């Protein structure tokens, strides 16, 4: 009789779980729309923390995978073969006075070049498609956009590859592994 009672309790528990399909932490009634319902008024959820290279080296990441990149101090979401930084609030402004090579960590940021002389903004190969950069030329020197090792094609309507004047704006979008679209105040 005792074995029968234990088996009945086990199967009843499995039946209840299979009906709701939800797991609750600090709750007896997890929301049915969630697989995992965590409730707390004093603690948070800690997402896995990784370096940029560890994030890039995750084997076969699933769409919707979320990590916290300790190098950029930001959350990153994997979607459609692309890691995308989740940006909240105002974009970050990065001031640059010398030649500079953009990285995936610069996506969504405003790169302010402030130099009296021309500076080179190098575009490396294998940046993920969809990354976007905003460039502002504050100084009198132009920002000249160049390909790393001539392996990146920089495209725009007129074939220009430099900002036009002081206080010019330019935008870059990575269209493919070796193709970047450049637009804005160019010459």
Would you mind describing this structure in some detail?
Keywords: Signal. Residues 1-18 form the signal peptide. It comes from Chryseobacterium salivictor. This is Auto-transporter adhesin head GIN domain-containing protein. This protein has a 6-stranded mixed beta sheet with strand order 7-9-11-14-15-13, with no helix packed on it. It has a 4-stranded mixed beta sheet with strand order 3-4-5-6. Helix content is 13%, strand content 36%. It is built from 2 helices and 15 strands. The chain folds into 3 domains: 2-38; 49-86; 93-184, gp9 (Jelly Rolls), CATH 2.60.120. α2 (52-56) links the parallel β3 (49-50) and β4 (66-69). The model has no long low-confidence stretch (mean pLDDT 86). By secondary structure, the protein is mainly beta.
Features:
single chain, 187 residues, mainly beta, Jelly Rolls, 3 domains, 6-stranded mixed beta sheet, 4-stranded mixed beta sheet, 2 helices, 15 strands, elongated
Topology, please?
Blueprint: H1 2-20, E1 23-25, E2 36-38, E3 49-50, H2 52-56, E4 66-69, E5 74-79, E6 82-86, E7 93-96, E8 100-101, E9 110-113, E10 119-123, E11 132-137, E12 143-147, E13 153-155, E14 168-176, E15 179-184
Parallel strand pairs: 1-2, 3-4, 7-9, 8-10, 9-11, 10-12, 13-15
Antiparallel strand pairs: 4-5, 5-6, 11-14, 14-15
Keywords: Signal
Protein name: Auto-transporter adhesin head GIN domain-containing protein
Organism: Chryseobacterium salivictor
CATH topological fold name of the largest domain: Jelly Rolls
Which runs of at least 5 residues are low in confidence (pLDDT < 50)? none
Overall 3D geometry?
elongated
> Number of DSSP helices?
2
Q: Spell the H/E element sequence.
A: HEEEHEEEEEEEEEEEE
Q: Which radius of gyration do the C-alpha atoms yield?
A: 25 Å
Q: Residue share in helices? A: 10-25%
Query: Which architecture of the largest domain would the CATH scheme give at its second level?
Result: Sandwich
Mean pLDDT: 86
| End-to-end separation | 88 Å
CATH homologous superfamily (4th level) name of the largest domain: gp9
Find the structural class using helix and strand composition.
Answer: mainly beta
CATH class membership of the largest domain = Mainly Beta
Number of domains: 3
Strand arrangement, major sheet: 7-9-11-14-15-13
Largest sheet, in brief, is:
6 strands, mixed
Instruction: Write down how many β-strands occur, each being a DSSP E stretch of 2 or more residues.
Output: 15
Question: In percent terms, what proportion of residues is strand?
Answer: 35-45%
